[in-house]
């Protein structure tokens, strides 16, 4: 395989992996965003924004890898090296999105009842 073919194969594999994660997270992410944003339109925007981020950041990381033109390692190892960078970008994006969402998710207060003079509070 030529270095260009290896590079494109790695990019296509990275894109497929990113799209699979977007599909996997779509429904739970939309539910959380509707609750946090209050409207479906706002949630749709932030869901689209997150999907674009989860798709593009791994591709940007994968673009940083250039295959060895001397024909050193095998094609599988070359693609695996490129996927390593794509996975690093994917993990980074998912962790950042998760952290941001965790900051805005309202913590449910513990429901306690106190009985004082026959009143329930």
Task: Give an account of the 3D structure.
The protein is mainly alpha-helical and 121 residues long. It has one domain. The chain has helices at 3-37, 40-63, 75-104, and strands at residues 115-116, 119-120. It has a two-stranded antiparallel ribbon. The radius of gyration is 22 Å and the shape is elongated.
Order of helices and strands: HHHEE
- Give the strand tally: 2
**Main sheet strand line-up:** 1-2
User: What would you call the shape?
Assistant: elongated
Uncertain regions spanning at least 5 consecutive residues: none
Please state the average pLDDT score: 83
Which structural class is indicated by helix and strand composition? mainly alpha
Helix % is over 70%
Q: The biggest beta sheet, please? A: 2 strands, antiparallel
Total discrete domains: 1
Estimated radius of gyration:
22 Å
What percentage of amino acids are in beta strands?
Answer: under 5%
Query: If helices are DSSP runs of H or I spanning 4 or more residues, what is the number of helices?
Result: 3
- What is the end-to-end distance? 73 Å
